[in-house]
């Protein structure tokens, strides 16, 4: 189990570096690790699906990264883990509008 957690943490750290995500605040070390994994899994899944937007994929990815970066609380990621798409939709849609894509 410890090995699995370590692997998840390494993956979450890699995603955070790749997308230059901010550190999360609050919670215990275990809670932060869990929240970082939740955030990384969501962002990776969403960015992987962005290719369906063709020439706008990079803009969509940037909006997703902006949405993920806007939530810096460990507690927020844990509390919203079952409803991330809906919880992040307002920030994501606003980011798309600012980038010239109607939400």
SSE diagram, text form:
Elements (H helix, E strand, L loop, with lengths): L1 H17 L10 H21 L7 H14 L3 H6 L4 H15 L5
What are the salient characteristics of this protein?
single chain, 103 residues, mainly alpha, 5 helices, 71% helix, globular
SSE order: HHHHH
Largest sheet entry:
none
Outline, from the CA principal axes? globular
Cα-to-Cα separation, first versus last residue = 41 Å
Round the mean pLDDT to the nearest integer and report it: 92
Overview of the molecule:
The protein is mostly helical and 103 residues long. Helix content is 71%, strand content 0%. Helix 1 packs across helix 2 and helix 2 packs antiparallel against helix 3.
Summarize the structure.
With 103 residues, the chain is an all-alpha fold. It is 71% helix and 0% strand.
């Amino acid at each position: 189990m410890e090995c699995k957690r370590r692997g998840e943490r390494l993956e979450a750290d890699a995603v955070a570096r790749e997308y230059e995500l901010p550190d999360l605040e609050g919670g215990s070390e275990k809670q932060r690790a869990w929240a970082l994994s939740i955030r990384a899994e969501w962002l990776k899944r969403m960015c992987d699906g962005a290719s369906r937007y063709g020439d706008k994929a990079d803009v969509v990815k940037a909006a997703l990264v902006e949405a993920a970066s806007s939530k810096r609380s460990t507690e927020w990621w844990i509390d919203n883990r079952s409803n991330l798409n809906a919880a992040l939709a307002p920030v994501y849609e606003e980011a798309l509008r600012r980038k010239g894509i109607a939400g």
